[in-house]
Amino acid sequence: MTLENISSNKCFNGWHKQFKHSSKALNCEMRFAIFLPPQTASGEKVPVLYWLSGLTCTDENFMQKAGAQRLAAELGIAIVAPDTSPRGDGVADDAEGAYDFGLGAGFYVNATQAPWQRHYHMYDYIVDELPALIEAHFPVSSQRAIAGHSMGGHGALMIALRNPERYSSVSAFSPICHPSACPWGIKAFSGYLGTATTDWAQYDSTLLISHASKTVPMRIDQGGDDAFLATQLNPEALLDAAAACGYPVQYQLHQGYDHSYYFIASFIDAHLRFHAEHFQSY
Amino acid sequence: MTLENISSNKCFNGWHKQFKHSSKALNCEMRFAIFLPPQTASGEKVPVLYWLSGLTCTDENFMQKAGAQRLAAELGIAIVAPDTSPRGDGVADDAEGAYDFGLGAGFYVNATQAPWQRHYHMYDYIVDELPALIEAHFPVSSQRAIAGHSMGGHGALMIALRNPERYSSVSAFSPICHPSACPWGIKAFSGYLGTATTDWAQYDSTLLISHASKTVPMRIDQGGDDAFLATQLNPEALLDAAAACGYPVQYQLHQGYDHSYYFIASFIDAHLRFHAEHFQSY
Q: Which key words are in the record (chains A, B) (predicted)?
């Protein structure tokens, strides 16, 4: 697999870089961003945090708005931010260009329904193809953590629950915790997976958690004034399911914070320190 | 003067807010953003850093991308980010919609040429109207600092040199140091001020510095791999003029850094600490 470097910015004595590559899983050309901390300049292999963004985002939102590079540079953590869906001229999009389905809204599943199944395999891309690419081309170790926001928080939790051997920790801001039972998730799962709701459970953290083969340290932060909290995010469903099966979750509700990157920026350092601690003890 | 609050985001236990107001200086409705650190919740009056953005920016770029709120919250500094030009349906723009003249490119001058003189009075807005508005409506002291990037770095340096009694310190990232002698500046000054170059000197830091009535602590950071360094920014002209008249400038050239917000984010903490130190000793 070849990578094409399309931008480089020095940042906190490390580098923010964007790359394009041809994705087998997604059957199209994809872009991702990577932050390489200064420790990698000498060839030191560093652990990687994969960041999954929310609806409408690309690889750029987190890198530009979260303010994560300062502490990642200090702690020696690489960060990889993929796009949120397949892209390109041949990739199907929602007929009305909705923000919550199609482009920018891959929901981190492997679609089974036409026309989405031709490209929308974000699950395979995030779990297998992208880490293999990163570990082949950059000075990183095989220590991985995964985190995300909103739709990406759903992706991070769901992927860690299904692949606990691949991640030393998982964290989420404002995740969609029970997609089978909220409007965003029902729309996406119906479209990508079809109407047989039995096929949805494999992508729903609330339904997956009792089946986890191994515990991954899990942290979730939620804004108390998040406009989507009651209708879309439903952390109580996940917390109840976790409590019922004894799966430990560090959950914090922050009064006054909303769904924006101003919330993420306020607590990203705590998430980075959480992942750093588990990299060390992994 | 009335302010209309149009957004609020809790951020690092303080608040990022956007406001609209009717500007007399600019003869149109304007938007600005303010970060209020947590100290203001109890009514404590905090000093204010005014941030002037560069070409194409609005009040949003710095607030979303610089990562300044974390340390500003700790140090107890409010930050005000105005827009970079007058805006609105009746405001003249460059005929070809150029990025470096007209909307988004006010250059912090008072235009004298038609049609620009109807609205383009960013100098008066930044020096007088906006601080009066801020100090009347928010829990801030009359301690002010000013900073900016590129066109906004030019604005910050030029305004501090002309109004040393109003600012306890000034800093700039990648400023346009000698606008009378670079393509961006010549285009802007010709358009807004006319072709009599004698009228340009009042807005050119390199030409102003020897006439400063009082020294303001000044810090400038410049990326060594900035694509605009040789053609547009010319820090050497300003440093030479400063040396000739004995005006102290803390100048740092950072190898490998470019003109982007990744550079600003990497050194914004140092600028905030610089301003905080001078607020205390003011």
A: Hydrolase, Serine esterase
Chain A residue nearest residue B65, CA to CA: A65
Q: Please give the radius of gyration of chain A, using alpha carbons only, rounded to the nearest integer.
A: 17
- Cα A24 to Cα B74: distance, rounded to the nearest angstrom: 47
Contacts of B103 (CB under 8 A, 6+ apart): B85, B86, B87, B91, B93, B94
Between B11, B263, B265, which is nearest A266 by CB?
A: B11
- A19: tokens are 């790359």
Distance CA A40, CA A272 (A): 18
B240 sits in which H/E element: helix B235-245
Measured between CA atoms, the residue of chain B closest to residue A60 is B65
Q: What is the pLDDT of residues B118-132, one digit of tens each?
A: 999 999 999 999 999
Q: What is the CA radius of gyration of chain B?
A: 17
What's phi and psi for A238, nearest 5 deg?
-70, -40
State whether residue B214 is helix, strand or coil.
coil
| Cβ contacts of A48 within 8 Å, gap of 6 or more | A77, A78, A79, A80, A131, A134, A140, A141, A143, A144, A145
Assessment of whether the complete model's pTM goes beyond 0.90:
yes
Active-site residue, B137 included: no
Per-residue b or e along A60-69, where b marks 16 or more CB atoms closer than 10 Å to that residue's CB: bbbbbbbbbb
The verdict on a CB contact (< 8 Å) between B265 and A225 is no
- From the list A16, A64, A262, the residue facing B16 with the nearest CB is A262
Q: What ipTM, to 2 d.p.?
A: 0.95
pLDDT in tens, A124-133: 999 999 999 9
For residue A260, the tally of other CB atoms under 10 A from its CB is 21
Q: Measured between beta carbons, which residues in chain B are less than 8 angstroms from residue A225?
A: 10
- Tell me whether residue A161 is exposed, middle or buried, using C-beta atoms within 10 angstroms of its C-beta: 0 to 12, 13 to 18, 19 or more: buried
Nearest to residue B73, comparing CAs of B41, B43, B50, B51? B41
- Give the pLDDT band (50/70/90) at residue B228: very high
